[in-house]
Amino acid sequence: MLDTTRRPDRHRHRVNPFELSDEDFRYKYRFSKRFGEKIVGILREDLVHDPRGCPLSPEIQVVCALRNWARHEIQDDTADLHGVSQPVVSRTCKKVAEILSRKSREFIKMPTTLNEQQETIRKFRSIANFPTVIGAIDCTHIRVKKVNADGGQLYINRKGFSSINVQVVCDADLKIMDIVTRWRGSVHDSRIFRECRLKQRFEAGAFSGILLGDSGYPCTPYLFTPLLNPTTPQEERYNRSHIRTRNTVERCFGLWKQRFRCLLRGMFGDIETAKKTIVACAVLHNMAIDMREDVFSGERDSIEQYSSEPIVQRYIAPSIRGNIRRRQFIETHFQDNTHL
């Protein structure tokens, strides 16, 4: 006999998460209610829900994505918490990531005016007295699921897992000013920079400062790297100051991944959605810094538990022009002992 008993509707009762106390909201979503409301305000017009089928308010859509990316729990748990199905959570996260990535130029941008550039340089100089720095550059590998399509082996990095090699330039406040997510894990950091638009802008003289990078990049007139074998007190002072100042990008990665555990533990959707989610998390990271969001400390697992050792890049010899420019820079700025 056919069973015509209707199942209870798991989707009927949904609590508005913004009716939670500040403490409960932060525990569930790892961010303050004020931060969640800010995101909803920015995305509301793009998230107007369709009342047919399984309607989700902009508030529910935002918190589903925020919880999934920040806590990186399985989507079934996020679905159960909000009275929806796992496929709905998956589609919601994809939609929110697409919208945030489209808006990324509003939140991820290099300083363009002279005043903005001078303020960025001033903040970098306050770290270790390294002058004229406008950004710190590096790459980080974000794990993705194994790609079985043609060319999938090109996503496998030197550590042996599939990843996207993400290039980031940050400022002294750890905000992301430029991001490139289109490269597979086997691609060297130096190639990503060589073929990115930011390099063209530096060569065209768009910026009054320089970038600091590690030895995985060639030293150029606008990207300074450490000296491989410093031999004079001036060169040693340069290296010490360089290391401390460039460390901002390592701290940026640490903070970014602590806020969004999906960046630590890996992306399990398709590659294009993973790229958009990475950019979306960069947008939210910058917003969190602007809003002075504290890092949630409710989870006890540490970043080190999930992060691996950095992938060692082969040393790239400096260009002749870069070597000359760096030598002149050291002679001009590192003669005295004010660089600690």
Automatic annotation (TrEMBL):
Which cofactors, by name?
a divalent metal cation
> From which domain of life does this come?
Eukaryota
Principal location listed in the UniProt entry: cytoplasm
One Pfam family, short name: DDE_Tnp_4
Q: Which keywords accompany this UniProt record?
A: Cytoplasm, Hydrolase, Metal-binding, Nuclease, Nucleus
Domain DDE Tnp4: residue ranges? 137-286
One cellular component term from this protein's GO annotations in UniProt: nucleus
Q: InterPro entries this protein is in?
A: HARBI1-like (IPR045249), HARBI1_animal (IPR026103), HARBI1_dom (IPR027806)
Which Gene Ontology molecular function entries are recorded, alphabetically? hydrolase activity; metal ion binding; nuclease activity
Function (record text) = Transposase-derived protein that may have nuclease activity. Does not have transposase activity.
Write out the similarity annotation: Belongs to the HARBI1 family.
* Name this protein carries in UniProt: Putative nuclease HARBI1
Species in which this protein is naturally found: Parnassius mnemosyne (clouded apollo)
